[in-house]
Amino acid sequence: SGSNCSLVGAIAFGICAACGAGRRTRVIVSLVALAGFVVLVTPEASVIRAGAMSTIALLALLTGRRGAGVAVLSLAVTVLVAADPWLATSYGFLLSASATGALLLLAEPLATGLNRWMPRALALGIAVPLAAQLVCGPIIVLFAPQVSLYGVVANMIAGPAAPAATVLGLAACLVQAIPPLALGLASLAWLPSAWVAQTAETFAALPAAGLGWHEGWLGFLALTAIGACVVVAITGAPRRLPAAARRWILRSSVAVLALVVGAGGGTVALTSVVGPLTAPRDWSIALCDVGQGDAILLRSAGRTAIVDTGPDVDALERCLTRLGVDEIDVAFLTHFDADHVTGVPALAGRVRTIVHGPYESEDDLSDARGVSGDVREGYAGMHGALGDATWRILWPARDTRAFAPGNDTSLVVEVTGGAVPRTLLLGDLGEDAQRLLWGSGRVMGTYDVVKVSHHGSRDQSPALYAEIRPLIGLIGVGENDYGHPHPDTLALLAGSGTAVARTDTDGLVLVSAADGLSVWRER
User: Fold this and answer.
1) Which of 164, 321, 489, 507 has the most CB atoms in a 10 Å sphere around its CB?
2) Which of 503, 49, 71 minimizes the C-alpha distance to 310?
3) Cis before 485 (ω within 30)
4) Beta bridge mates, 518
5) pTM
6) Is the Cβ–Cβ distance between 424 and 450 less than 8 Å?
7) C-beta separation of 440 from 461 below 8 A
């Protein structure tokens, strides 16, 4: 909102006044100080807007005319956009100007309305960040489709530290020629700066810190309408309207807010506190809903493995949090397509060992090595234990040259025993690779569960599925234009007597063998 620029200008003006300088001298010195501050902090869009507004206000003071805040803002925006029309496309500029307008037009009415239920000081403390968030929120969803649930409270806590950080930091910059003094001032400036930073980090780490919102103009209009309802609920409908119309508008606004708060509260509860309680706890296989990609958890006797991590770090983190998975003993990265490994950073602090398929370059392994110190390449014949269960890699052969690294060299993992249904995870193998896998003799007998290859694409081997005859087929799939899962593949599974569970229609899928083989679907 430009408070830093205003603060610098006010300090310069006040110092000149204390020294007995005339009005013209005060304004000139303030303008020079303001220009230096803009250069110091770099002339970004919000700083330019704030500096221009402060300049116009100072010039108005010089001429003896006290321009209204809205008029000053309007003139500043007009001058800047005329000088650089591209500023009109800058989100930073839009947010800065909108926040200032909100403080000028909405803060006082909101404070007056809130004063009916709380002390004036608290009402004003809430009204200032609330006004800014109501106006800036719809703009933010145009490029970041989420709504901050704690933004008002966080700004109330962090706000008082900002002026101290500005003054002390600026002073430290100005006395750089005297290192001991500069260091001392910088050390003092660290305290309010750390207060602001820690406030942001603390609130960002709280459950459901951001509520997902519809992106684009639909999200903009919806959030604008909700913001208008908030203003009406606090301040009342415009008094120039007839009494009956004011009552109708007020009641409608309150009803809309009640609906939004109820739906939003339910969403937050399901994604944070209540969500984990809605899923069965005796699962042994979990197919996470991560969009167009794979992320499958397997659990036995308190030990957990994951096969692939999907295309979305946040989606995988939500799944792990919901299922209460804090430690992962082994992660299998079947191959290095983005829809299977982009979520690897979500394993940081959780995973011990990573086993991966063939790769093209060392760069493919950078994320894996960033989250685990034990990263090794997998190949047919490698095996290990997972609690009371055992896992075995069936494909590809070590140092194979039959296929280039990619879909057809995906790790194929078999997991059996320890309350885990006999499971075969096929990665993204195509029909030719599946035929060679079947012919290798490593796949023997039937399976309870199969992770259908390549998100249910048409490129499947009927002979392999006829051999393994799975009872349950898991398909990790999201919105896509590839035609996944293909109707022919679904027909192939149906012909094998396989019940299909897919994330695009079922959401999170959990398989349990605790009391016979059962499947739980989120939707």
Assistant:
1) 489
2) 503
3) yes
4) 512
5) 0.58
6) yes
7) no
Helices (H) and strands (E) counted in the chain, each on its own, are: 20, 17
Domain ranges of the chain: 3-140+151-214, 282-521
How does pLDDT run along the chain (523 residues), one tens digit per residue?
556 777 777 778 888 888 888 878 888 888 888 888 878 877 776 677 777 777 766 666 666 555 566 777 788 788 888 988 888 888 888 887 888 788 778 888 888 888 888 888 888 888 888 888 888 889 988 888 888 888 888 888 888 888 888 888 888 888 888 888 889 988 898 999 999 999 988 888 777 677 778 878 888 898 888 888 888 888 887 778 888 888 888 888 888 888 877 776 666 666 555 555 566 788 999 999 999 999 999 999 989 999 999 999 999 998 998 888 999 999 999 999 999 999 999 999 999 999 999 998 889 999 999 999 999 999 999 999 999 999 999 999 888 777 888 899 999 999 999 889 999 999 999 999 999 998 888 998 899 999 999 999 999 999 999 889 999 999 999 988 888 999 999 999 998 889 999 999 999 999 998 778 899 998 8
Q: How far apart are CA 367 and CA 3, in angstroms?
A: 41
Amino acid at 70: V
For the stretch 460-488, what's the b/e string if a residue is b when 16 or more beta carbons lie within 10 angstroms of its beta carbon? bbeebbeebebbbbbbbbbeeeeebbbee
Check the CA dihedral 219-220-223-229 and report its sign.
negative
Instruction: Look at the chain and count its residues.
Output: 523
